[in-house]
Specification:
The protein is an alpha+beta fold. It has one domain: Trna Endonuclease, Chain: A, domain 1 (3-Layer(aba) Sandwich). 30% of the residues lie in helices and 39% in strands. The protein is built from two helices and five strands, in the order αβββαββ. The chain has a five-stranded mixed sheet with strand order 1-2-3-4-5. Strand 2 and strand 3 form a beta hairpin.
């Protein structure tokens, strides 16, 4: 399975888990603008959640933190700012969350880890 396919599968699992198990309303998937791509944009309890999804095999779990470097976070903030400026009904507090989907070596099972507010942007 390619990295892109693994990422797409992880995003689908994350969206379903957030919706079915936690009551999130998924507003957008893979929302793109000139400066960024946001994996999931959701509404939950009068808040807007900008959600980064990371999918990994259990053998590569330690690489997740390295993939969330400052430049990636800046892109998420730019993307969120662009999204909010183009949506008239996008109101509420904004949070940046992380969902990690870890797949077993044989791809027969996975775990989902949710980290609300995994970073706080400087402009808040």
């Amino acid at each position: 399975m390619s990295g892109k396919e693994l990422g797409n599968l992880g995003e689908s699992i994350a969206a379903k888990w957030l919706h079915d198990s936690n009551g999130f309303e998924i507003a957008e998937r893979n929302w793109r603008c000139k400066d960024a791509e946001i994996d999931l944009i959701a509404k939950h309890d009068d808040t807007i959640r900008i959600i980064e999804v990371k999918s990994r095999m259990e053998s590569a779990k330690e690489s997740i933190a390295a993939s969330l470097a400052r430049p990636k976070m800046r892109k998420l903030v730019k993307g969120a700012d662009n999204y909010l400026s183009t949506r008239l009904n996008a109101a509420g507090e904004i949070f940046f969350d992380l969902v990690t989907v870890i797949f077993s070596k044989d791809m027969k099972s996975h775990s989902v880890e949710y980290t609300p507010c995994f970073f706080y942007p400087e402009w808040c």
